[in-house]
Write a structure and sequence with these properties.
heterodimer, A: 295 residues, mainly alpha, ABC transporter involved in vitamin B12 uptake, BtuC, two-stranded antiparallel sheet, 2 strands, globular, B: 333 residues, two-stranded antiparallel ribbon, 13 helices, 71% helix, BCAA_transport_permease (chain A), transmembrane (chain A), transport (chain A)
C-alpha cells in the first residue's frame, strides 16, 4: 500500500527535524573546528539515557514540562562534558591530519558506547513520551501523533534559536568571524580559544538536548549512536559543512527522499537515502550552501 | 641485517608465517581460531593502508569489499559445491575488484579528504542495506552452514588444516600487497599522494592510477574476506556494516600508517586487547576506545612509529655522527 501524499510529507518533516536536531551541533562544531565529530552520536545517546533516567526518577517529571526540563538538563550535562572533551581531546587535534581526527572522534564514540554499557547495561529500554504527547490527532486521512508534532516544533524552534544566536548576538558574530578567518580574528584581539570552547559546549549541549527530546522516538540501546550519526553526517555534508541553514534544508530534502523512498521501495528502506547522498555530493560537492562559513 | 628491502621483507614474512603455523602446537582451539581471524584482518588492514598511505585516499567503505568476497565464496560453496576452492577465492577477488572499480569510477571524482570518505561510506551502507534486505543474500540472517572445502586430496575440514590454509593464503596476499607497494605502480601511487598536479605533469594518469589502487585494494580485501566464511561457517550482513570499515583504519593508525607492517602490529595488538577484555561488557569498548585515543593523541606515528623513534634515539646515543634512515621508505611526512 502506498501512503497518501500528506502522510508522506508529514513523515518527511518528522524525519528531517529529528535528524536536524542531531545534525545542528555536528555542523556547528565542524564549521568552527573543522572536526567531523563521530562521537556526536555517542553524546547524543548519553543525553537520551540521562534524560530517560531523570524522567523516571520522580513521578513529578512524568508530564510534558518534566520531559522538557529533563531534556534541557541532559543538554546542560553534555555541554559540561563537552568542555572536558574540548580541553582533553579537541585542543590537541588542532594540528593533526584529518584522518587522525576522524579516528580520534571514533575512539571517543567507542568510549561513549562503553560508558553507556557500564552504567545503563546492554538491555534495550523502551521510553514512552509524556501523557500529553501520547495522543493522536486526525486531519482528514492524516494521522498526527502529538509526539511527532512535538519533534517537528522542537526542530524548528532549535533552528530559529540558532539562527538568532549566530546572526543577532555578539557571540554569534564572533563565531562567524572565527569561522571565516581565525588568524585575523586573533589579530583583532578576539579570544579565539574561548570562542572555540564555547562552540564545542554549544554543539555538545545540542547533542544532549536532541537526545532528551528524541528519547521517546526510539528504544534506548547502546546501538543508538550508530543509527543517527550516519543520517546526521549525510545531512551535514549535503547541507554544506558548517552551515546551519544548509543542514536545515538538507534535513527536509533528505527527509523527503527517505519518506518517498520508503513508500516506493518498501522492501529496501534507506537505499534511496544513500543514493541521493552520493548523487548530491557528485553534483554539488560542497553541499547546498557552500559559503565556507557558519550561516 | 640484510640491505635488500625485498629480502628483508621475505625474511620477516617467513618468520611471521612460521610463527603463525607453529601456533596450534602451543595454543588451544579458541586462540587458533582467533589467530585465523586476525590473519584475515591483517590483510584487510594492509589493503586499506595501500590506499591510505601509498595512494593517499581515506576509504571509509572497506567492509564492502571484504563482505563482497565473503558472500561470493559463501554463495559459490553453497550453490556450486563442486567448484574448486581456489577458483572460488579467485572469483571473490574478481568480485571485489569489479565492485571497487564501479564505486571508484563514481567516488574518485571527489578525492578531497572528508568527501571521499563519506562517499565511500555512503556506498558501503548502500551495499549493506541491499545485502540485509535481499533474500538471495539471506537477508538479515545471512548465509549459514558454509562448509570447509577440499583442495584436491586435502580435506580442509580436518583439524587445523583450514587454519594452515588461511595463514598460507594471507601470507601470499601480504606478499602481493608488498610487491604492489614497492613496484613501479606503487611508486606512481606515492607520487600522486605527494603531489597530484606534479604527477600529472610527469605524465601519470592520476585518476586511472587511483582507480587501480582502489581495485587492487578491493581485490585483496575481497580475497581475504572470502576466507572468512568457511572459517566461521556463517556470513551475515554485519560484515558490511560501517563499523567493520573502521576496523582496518584502527589497525593501521594504531600500528603506524607510515610503516608497511603497521596494520599487522595494530591488528595483533587490538585483537589482543579485545581478547583480554572480552568478558567485561562495556569495559572492552572503554579500553579499546581509550587506547586508540591515547595513540592518536600521544603517538600519532602509531606503535611502529614510536618504536622507530626509540631505536633512532638509542642509535644516536651510540654513534652521534651517523644519520640513520629509520624513517622507512614510504613513510608519511
Amino acid at each position: 500500500m502506498v501512503a497518501d501524499l500528506p502522510t508522506l510529507l508529514f513523515n518527511a518533516l518528522v524525519w528531517g527535524m529529528a535528524t536536524f536536531l542531531v545534525a545542528a551541533g555536528l555542523t556547528m562544531i565542524f564549521g568552527i573546528l573543522h572536526v567531523l565529530n563521530f562521537s556526536h552520536g555517542g553524546f547524543f545517546m548519553i543525553g537520551a539515557y540521562v534524560a530517560h533516567s531523570l524522567t523516571n526518577w520522580s513521578a513529578a517529571m512524568a508530564n510534558i514540562w518534566g520531559f522538557l526540563a529533563a531534556s534541557v538538563l541532559a543538554g546542560a550535562v553534555i555541554g559540561i562534558v563537552g568542555l572536558v572533551v574540548d580541553r582533553a581531546v579537541f585542543r590537541r587535534l588542532a594540528h593533526v591530519d584529518g584522518a587522525y581526527v576522524l579516528v580520534a572522534t571514533y575512539a571517543l564514540l567507542l568510549v561513549c558506547n562503553g560508558f553507556v554499557k557500564l552504567v545503563w547495561g546492554l538491555n534495550v529500554v523502551s521510553a514512552s513520551p509524556p501523557p500529553e504527547l501520547f495522543e493522536v490527532s486526525f486531519l482528514g486521512n492524516l494521522v498526527l501523533p502529538h509526539y511527532s508534532i512535538f519533534v517537528v516544533v522542537a526542530g524548528v524552534v532549535v533552528f530559529l534559536a540558532l539562527e538568532w544566536l549566530i546572526n543577532m548576538t555578539s557571540v554569534g558574530r564572533l563565531i562567524q568571524a572565527i569561522a571565516i578567518d581565525p588568524w585575523m580574528a586573533r589579530l583583532l584581539g578576539v579570544n579565539v580559544g574561548l570562542i572555540y570552547s564555547a562552540t564545542v559546549v554549544i554543539g555538545f549541549a545540542l547533542a544532549g538536548l536532541a537526545g532528551g527530546l528524541l528519547v521517546a522516538n526510539q528504544s534506548l540501546s547502546p546501538d543508538l549512536a550508530g543509527i543517527f550519526i550516519i543520517q546526521a553526517f549525510g545531512v551535514v555534508i549535503v547541507g554544506g559543512m558548517g552551515s546551519i541553514r544548509g543542514a536545515f534544508l538538507a534535513a527536509i530534502l533528505l527527509g523527503l527522499v527517505d519518506s518517498f523512498g520508503t513508500a516506493l521501495l518498501p522492501q529496501m528502506p534507506g537505499v534511496l537515502f544513500f543514493v541521493a547522498l552520493a548523487a548530491i555530493l557528485l553534483i554539488r560537492p560542497r553541499g547546498l550552501i557552500a559559503s565556507g562559513r557558519l550561516s | 641485517m640484510t640491505r635488500s628491502p625485498a629480502l628483508r621483507f621475505l625474511l620477516v614474512l617467513g618468520l611471521l608465517t612460521g610463527a603463525a603455523l607453529l601456533l596450534p602446537l602451543v595454543a588451544n582451539r579458541g586462540i587458533v581460531f582467533l589467530a585465523g581471524v586476525v590473519a584475515i584482518n591483517v590483510v584487510l588492514g594492509l589493503a586499506f593502508n595501500l590506499l591510505f598511505s601509498t595512494a593517499g585516499l581515506l576509504s571509509f567503505g572497506q567492509a564492502t569489499f571484504s563482505a563482497a568476497g565473503a558472500y561470493a565464496v559463501a554463495l559459490l560453496l553453497l550453490r556450486v559445491p563442486e567448484i574448486p576452492f581456489l577458483v572460488a577465492l579467485g572469483a571473490a577477488a574478481a568480485t571485489g575488484a569489479a565492485i571497487a572499480t564501479a564505486i571508484g569510477l563514481v567516488a574518485l571524482r571527489r578525492t578531497e579528504g572528508v568527501y571521499f570518505a563519506v562517499l565511500t561510506l555512503a556506498f558501503a551502507e548502500l551495499v549493506h542495506v541491499v545485502i540485509a534486505k535481499t533474500s538471495f543474500f539471506g537477508r538479515n540472517d545471512g548465509l549459514t552452514g558454509i562448509p570447509r572445502p577440499r583442495i584436491g586430496p586435502i580435506d580442509l575440514a580436518d583439524g587445523q588444516a583450514y587454519y594452515v590454509f588461511v595463514i598460507l593464503v594471507t601470507a601470499l596476499l601480504i606478499a602481493c600487497l608488498w610487491w604492489v607497494t614497492h613496484s613501479r605502480l606503487g611508486r606512481s601511487f606515492r607520487a600522486i599522494r605527494l603531489d597530484p598536479m606534479r604527477a600529472a605533469f610527469l605524465g601519470i594518469d592520476v585518476r586511472r592510477r587511483r582507480l587501480e589502487a582502489f581495485a587492487v585494494s578491493g581485490a585483496c580485501a575481497a580475497a581475504a574476506g572470502g576466507l572468512m566464511g568457511p572459517l566461521t561457517s556463517i556470513v551475515s550482513p554485519d560484515l558490511a556494516h560501517w563499523g567493520e570499515s573502521t576496523k582496518p583504519i584502527l589497525f593501521t593508525l594504531l600500528g603506524g600508517a607510515g610503516h608497511f607492517w603497521g596494520p599487522l602490529v595494530g591488528a595483533v595488538v587490538f585483537s589482543g586487547v579485545e581478547y583480554a577484555t572480552r568478558s567485561l561488557a562495556g569495559a572492552s569498548d572503554l579500553i579499546t576506545g581509550g587506547l586508540l585515543l591515547a595513540v592518536v593523541l600521544a603517538i600519532p606515528g602509531g606503535l611502529l612509529g614510536l618504536a622507530a623513534l626509540v631505536v633512532r634515539r638509542l642509535r644516536r646515543r651510540e654513534r652521534p655522527a651517523t644519520v640513520t634512515d629509520a624513517a622507512a621508505e614510504g613513510a608519511r611526512p
